[in-house]
Amino acid sequence: MQVNLDFTGRHIFVFGGTTGINFGIAQAFARQGASVTVASRKQENVDAAHQQLAQLGGPVLGVCADVRDFDAVGRAFAEAVERFGPVDVLISGAAGNFLCEAKDMSSNGFRVVVDIDLVGTFHVLRQAYGHLRKPGAAVINITAPQSFVPIRYQAHASAAKAGVDQLTRVLALEWGGDGIRINSISPGPIEGTEGFRRLMAPTEAERAAAQSSVPMQRFGTVDDIANLALFLASPYAGYISGALVPCDGGGALESVKVPLEAAGRAAAATGKPA
Length: 274
Ligand code: COA
Ligand code: NAP
Known about the structure:
There is one protein chain. It contains nine helices and seven strands. The protein has about 270 residues and is of the alpha/beta class. The protein has a single domain (about 10-200, about 220-250), classed as Rossmann fold (3-Layer(aba) Sandwich). It has a seven-stranded parallel beta sheet, with helices on both faces. α1 links the parallel β1 and β2 (about 35-40). α1 (about 20-30) crosses α8. The longest helix has 22 residues, at about 105-130. It starts with 10 loop residues before the first strand and ends with a helix. The model has no long low-confidence stretch (mean pLDDT about 95). Bound molecules: coenzyme A and NADP nicotinamide-adenine-dinucleotide phosphate. Coenzyme A binds near residues 97, 108, 109, 112 and 113.
């Protein structure tokens, strides 16, 4: 189920928007009448996304660009703005991830995720600034619970996404006077996505346990995230900036609780206060 908000004639640019959650966001805005630009590294993903978005009937542009290449990101914005005018809504969601313990991770393995997620987000925001509609633009960074809940095997992604969320806050300070709002969305585990496939527990029993650890007892859907993006980009969120908005069925609360409860049990066992 998707909410209904009118974005007719608005230009939405989704970086990393050719697959998964970000593509779902692009589709949701296309259904609300927006002119949609999607960009990512792989030509085949750009072509497939372009074809599917075009079927929704509105104006679409697909651009091939790697967020690690500052100049290529700049060229992508120039092309999009030439076609559809200033960007009303920018979604920055390009990311890479894999599971690996820090002690086994190579320098390049750590760097590649920081380069895509954090430096790439800076490239996108920095190059977008001159092309955002002022006043009125809304920017949304897609982060993850790793940004505020330390998670094993996720040293690279945790560090990178925490940096992204701090960029959100700093730029809310710096760009607020231009009439630009900027917020982060932190999705929980979203079924049917590449991130879910890579990071979710491998066995059925472990997945069931992970699902029941979510207070709302279900994994998320791409529509859950797309609806939040529509809301945050809309005038209904006109005074929200610098916020980190989890969309996770309460999952982050539970993850934070687990170690605290374990510490509490240990303290109770020794009879000493934690
Ligand atoms: N475990 C440990 N290290 C890994 C790894 C894994 N599963 N996958 C990649 N690496 C390391 C590589 O060994 C390499 O380090 P090295 O040069 O020291 O050997 C480094 O990471 C870069 O890998 P490479 O494959 O050259 O990077 P890339 O730029 O082609 O791809 C990735 C980037 C690795 C993030 C790739 O998984 C990707 O493109 N992901 C995008 C999709 C995605 O992750 N979606 C989910 C988002 S939540
Ligand atoms: P996904 O489908 O792999 O999406 C990542 C997108 O980024 C792809 O379109 C990819 O396209 C693009 N991309 C990757 N590297 C890029 C680069 N260097 N330059 C430009 N584009 C690049 O994964 P997803 O699971 O939907 O994740 C989307 C976002 O949600 C990510 O920010 C992720 O961290 C976040 N998130 C996901 C979950 C989840 O459960 N899935 C949970 C929390 C947070 P190309 O390969 O064509 O470049």
